[in-house]
């Protein structure tokens, strides 16, 4: 577990170690089957897999990267890769969402397992069944890592989490646990998932009211809470930017007063969350059909 956090070279060596990833997955599968999701070894195994999934898309060997990315269709090499937020070409965005999902091997081995639907379902199962905060956080964090990019792999993982494995209810429950780091990681995962336009209506329906409910009414008291607040605002921005329906849902859940309060606090420590809230308000005002409701 310690070695898996030793940087890019350490991750590379461990990913290449014959049988290591397969053994970790095998152990976790056995622990879940034996109804022992809370043992320390399961936590260690998940934490290792979490670390090995960090920057996976960037660090993949060419033979894997090519097999995943060769399936892109009709995407010009001149297109700019869209960032997480900010101005984004609708044309590029639509092409990105039109990218076909990578084909999965029925029996993945080694590094192939890290993005396979089998392991994604294991993470979601641990999120639902484990009461150990480190195990919950590592499972959420692994999914956050796998959905962090803009290519076919993050897109496919997001589709699996939301549509194929019905993972949103388990993730939503993590928004209300007592551990601030687990909540923060759950929100960060939702922020990644919310960038996927084809999933935004599902995400808004399932978790938007919960995201609003955990927004603070006043300035939070810790750095983790600042970051969580900013991530919530960016997630809501993604969900409402192109959807008047989702913006109305945000309005009806009484989120506007909280967002205004957050946006008006210009203290240096809270500025990241304040900027995120201001961006969200600016985006919400772009839905002209809601102006009269906003004024009320």
From TrEMBL:
Assign the protein's first listed, main location to one coarse class: other
The species this protein belongs to is Nothocercus julius
Q: Does the keyword Repeat apply?
A: yes
Query: According to the UniProt entry, where is the signal peptide?
Result: none
Here the segments flagged for biased composition (Basic and acidic residues) are 94-107
Which protein is depicted? PKP2 protein
Lineage runs: Eukaryota, Metazoa, Chordata, Craniata, Vertebrata
According to its UniProt entry, one GO biological process term is: cell-cell adhesion
Q: Which GO terms describe its cellular component?
A: adherens junction; cytoplasm; intercalated disc; nucleus; plasma membrane
């Amino acid at each position: 577990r310690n070695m898996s956090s030793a940087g890019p070279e350490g991750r590379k060596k461990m990913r290449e170690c014959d049988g290591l990833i397969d053994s970790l997955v095998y152990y976790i599968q056995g622990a879940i089957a034996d109804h022992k999701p809370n043992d320390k070894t399961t936590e260690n195994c998940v934490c290792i897999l979490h670390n090995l999934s960090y920057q996976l898309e960037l660090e993949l060997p060419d033979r894997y990267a090519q097999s995943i990315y060769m399936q892109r269709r009709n995407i010009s090499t001149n297109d700019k890769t869209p960032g997480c937020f900010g101005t984004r070409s609708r044309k590029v965005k639509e092409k990105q969402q039109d990218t076909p999902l990578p084909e999965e091997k029925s029996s993945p081995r080694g590094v192939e397992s890290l993005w396979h639907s089998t392991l994604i379902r294991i993470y979601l199962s641990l999120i639902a069944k484990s009461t150990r905060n480190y195990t919950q956080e590592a499972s959420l964090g692994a999914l956050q890592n796998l959905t962090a990019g803009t290519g076919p792999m993050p897109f496919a993982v997001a589709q699996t989490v939301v549509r194929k494995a019905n993972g949103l209810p388990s993730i939503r429950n993590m928004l209300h646990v007592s551990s601030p780091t687990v909540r923060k990681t759950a929100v960060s995962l939702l922020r990644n998932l919310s960038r996927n336009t084809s999933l935004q209506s599902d995400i808004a329906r399932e978790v938007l009211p919960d995201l609003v409910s955990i927004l603070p009414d006043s300035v939070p008291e810790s750095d983790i809470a600042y970051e969580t607040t900013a991530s919530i605002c960016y997630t809501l921005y993604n969900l409402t930017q192109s959807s008047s329906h989702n913006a109305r849902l945000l309005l009806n859940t009484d989120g506007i007063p909280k967002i205004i309060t957050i946006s008006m606090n210009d203290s240096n420590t809270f500025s990241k969350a304040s900027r995120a809230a201001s961006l969200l308000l600016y985006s919400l005002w772009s839905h002209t059909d809601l102006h009269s409701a906003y004024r009320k």
